[in-house]
Fold:
Amino acid sequence: MGEIIAQILTKTSGACVMNTDKKLFLLDVDNIQGYIFDTNKLRTIIGASWIIDHINAADDGNTLELLKKNGFGSTIDDIRKHKDFIYSSGGNTKIIFDSFEKAQKFETAITYAYARYEIPVTTYIQTVDDTDFINKTLIPAETALAQKKYSKAFEMDIPASPYFKICELCGKRYASEKSRKSVVCNICKVRYDKGGKKTRLFPDYTFVTNMEKMRLRSDMVALVVMDGNRIGEKIAGLDSIEKLQEFAAALESIIKDAFDLSLDRTFPDEKSACSFGSIRPLIMGGDDLCFIIDAANALNFVNTFTQEIAGQSQNQNGPFGRQGVQFSTGILFAKRNYPFNFAYRIAHSLLRSAKRYSREHKDCSAVDFHFLLTSSGDEIEKVRENEYRYGDHFLTAKPYLASELDSLRTAAVNLRLLSKNKIKSMRKILRLGRYQSTVELLKYAIRMDQAERKKYRDLLNSFGWRKHKGEHFWRTRLLDLAELTDMVRR
Ligand SMILES: [Zn+2]
Structure:
C-alpha cells in the first residue's frame, strides 16, 4: 500500500511540478534606511550605506567573492554573466545553486558577513521549478520571504546600565571600552571609518563627508529620496531569468548614466574637477536613491534626472516598456544642521505622498517637497493640515508632476519682481481667504510698470486660488512659489 502511494506521489509530482535539485536563494537586508539613519553624523551614515552596498554588490565585496569560491567563475565578468546569478544590488540578492547544501553554505557565510556589522537580513531557500521560474519559483519564494521578514520579533531595546555608556552616535548600542575619549560603539566606529570610501558607482569622484564642508548657497540643504514607480510589478511581468538579469543590469546602468549627466548639467565646474561639494549621494542601490544637495539646486537636479531616466528607458521592446522608468521623489528642505534621522523620516513620507499622486496620474514621475519651518517630526499629512489648511482653503497644491517642475521654477523666478518682504508677507495674506487675499495681492501691482504688472497678473491668474471639479478644497500655488523663490536659480 505504502509503495503504491509512493508511486502515485512520484508520478503526480513528475507530472505537475518539475522539481529539480536546484535551489533559489533569496536575501533581503531588513530596513536598510533604519540602519543607515540611526545616527546623525553624515560620515557614519555614508559608511553604513557603503558597508551594505559593498557586501551586497561590490566587485570585491562578500557576495561576489563567495560566488567565486562557489565556482561561478574566476573573473567578475564571468560571475555577473553566469546564468544562475540573477542579481545582487539594492540590498537584495537572488542566486540559483545546484544543491540545497551549496545554498545553505552560502546562506551561512553571507549572513555572517552582514551580522558582523549588526545588519539584519532575511533569507529564504526555495526549490526551483523549471516549468515556470517566475510564477512557480520566484513569486512563491518572494512571498515566503516577506512573511518571514514581517513575522520577526521587534528589536529589543537594550536597558540602560549605570556601568556602561551608550554610544553617542547611534544612541542604541553600548560604547566600547577602548575609546574613552569618544563614547562610540564598535559598529559606529567601523561605519565612521568606512565613510571615507569611494562611492561604488562613481569610483573616480570625490564627495564631501562632512556636513560643515558642504557647499551651500544659503544655509539650506535638501534631502532627496527617490524611487522607481512600480518596479516590483514590472519585475513580476518578466517571464524568464534572462530578462530578470537584463532588467537589473539595465536599471543600474541607466540610473548611473542619468545621475552622472545630471551632475554634469547641474554642477559643471565640480564635475570637471571630479570633486563635489554641492551634492552627496547617501544611497544608490537597485532603484533606491537618496542624496543631500544644495537646496538651490535640488529642483533643477531632480528635474534633469527624471527627464533623462525616462528618456533613456522608454522603449516599446526594451525591458522597461513604452513608459520607461518613472521616478517618484520626496524633497525636504531644511537647515544644514537639522538632524538627519528626523529629516529622513519626513522626506520618506514626502516620497510616499508623491507615489500616491503618481498612481493617480498614470504613473508619471511626481515630486512632493516641503520646507521645514518647525522642528516637528510629524508625518507630512499632519504637518500639511497644521500649517497649510484653513477651513476649506489649502495654501499648497503639492505634490506636483515632475513635468510641472520647469514651469514652477520659472514662475518662482518671476515672482522675484516682488521685494523679499512682500514675498514673505504672502503666507499671512493668503490666510485671509480667497477674496480678501486676492485684493491685497493686487495692491502690490499699483506701483509696477506695465510690463511688470502684466507678468504679475499672469502669475496671480495661473497660480492663484482654484477649485478643481469634484474637489472639496480651494487651493493656491502662490505660497509654493513664494517658498521656492530662494531655492531656484535663474
Ligand atoms: Zn553606535
